[in-house]
Write a structure and sequence with these properties.
The protein is mainly α. It has seven helices and no strands.
């Protein structure tokens, strides 16, 4: 007897020819079949490396531009695909990691520690991150939970910097 349950519909695929999808999906990092958020955060490390040499004010300016652009990009990509917070949308991970690394000291130890802390909070989603993820919609909602995870990770990173 054949099963009456069917496999869930696969998530819609982005069009990498669409500039909004290309950016929102982290130039394809978010298309990874396993751990797209982690792949997006790895891409964020590559984005962070040249930005880490900027003066703090310039870094904050770039971060603000990434956040503001991300609200629009994530909203547009989610609407195009008909899926709120499609797991392949990783611009929010890029913004969250860049926020984590705000005023971080130079060195691979801090880059890796920031990566681990950001992924911890982004996956674990302690309050209020999980609540925001479930209750705030649109591009702002897609970005907000990762930005709060970035704040949590940044605070923990700064505690490590000053007390370890």
């Amino acid at each position: 007897m054949a099963s009456t349950t069917s496999a869930p519909d696969p998530l819609p695929k982005p069009s990498m020819g669409n500039f909004v999808h290309l950016l929102a999906f982290g130039f394809g990092a978010g298309c990874s079949p396993k751990a797209p958020g982690t792949m997006g955060t790895l891409l964020a490390v590559g984005v962070y490396l040249p930005l880490s040499h900027l003066p703090l004010a310039a870094y904050i300016g770039v971060l603000a531009a990434v956040i503001l652009a991300g609200i629009w990009l994530c909203d547009r990509a989610a609407r195009d695909l008909g899926v709120h917070d499609h797991p392949g949308i990783v611009w929010d991970e890029i913004a969250g990691y860049l926020l984590t690394m705000l005023a971080a000291p130079a060195g691979w130890v801090w880059i890796v520690a920031g990566f681990a802390l950001f992924r911890l909070f982004d996956i674990w989603k302690p309050w209020p991150i999980g609540w925001l993820d479930r209750h705030v919609g649109g591009g702002f909602g897609i970005m907000l939970d990762d930005l709060v995870a970035g704040v949590f990770a940044a605070v923990c990173l700064q505690i490590l910097v000053h007390y370890v």
